Amino acid sequence: MRRIRLGVGAALAAGTLAVTGLAFAPAALAVAPATATINATCTIGGSGEATLTATQTGTTATITVSSEAITAPIALSEDSIASTLTMVKASGGTTVFSGTENPAMALGDGVTVGPLTGTVASGDSLEAFGGSLQMVILGFTVTCTADAAQSPGPFVFD
């Protein structure tokens, strides 16, 4: 009988610790909206609609930029584009996202770069309009800028 009580007591203690751990676990953070679109003009590769997809984990955020309208000026190998996305903060200043991740692209394929990584604070509101995306491709810099505010609105981070 004593073994049964110890087993039940240990199970209750483990269950209590598990529930306590859940209560103190960090809340999942979210960015809203998760995706936004812009119309962009680039120095090479054309212009048109691009989609920005954002994620957040703590103070680290990522943004991936993809477009079927803005195309690769040459065939590009995977992870060959050094990209810097500068977003404008509603409170003033900018936040920079950078990285070298991209899929392989053939000449004329739609461009995708990212995820590009940056640091955000709770409540940051970031907008592409007024910022830029710079991509260094084989030593040449291609700059894309938004023609108007992103839709449906700026990214707001938890």
Characterize the structure shown.
The model is unreliable at 1-28 (pLDDT under 50). 15% of the residues lie in helices and 51% in strands. By secondary structure, it is mostly beta strands. A hairpin with a 2-residue loop joins strand 3 (47-57) and strand 4 (60-71). The protein contains one helix and ten strands.
Number of strands: 10
Low-confidence stretches: 1-28
What integer is the average pLDDT?
87
Separation, N- and C-terminal Cα atoms = 52 Å
Percentage of residues assigned to helices: 10-25%
Secondary-structure topology with pairs:
Elements (H helix, E strand, L loop, with lengths): L1 H23 L6 E2 L2 E8 L4 E11 L2 E12 L10 E8 L4 E6 L10 E10 L5 E13 L2 E7 L8 E3 L1
Antiparallel strand pairs: 1-10, 2-3, 2-9, 3-4, 4-7, 5-6, 5-8, 8-9, 8-10
Quick overview of this protein structure:
This protein is mostly beta strands. It has one helix spanning 2-24, and strands spanning 31-32, 35-42, 47-57, 60-71, 82-89, 94-99, 110-119, 125-137, 140-146, 155-157.
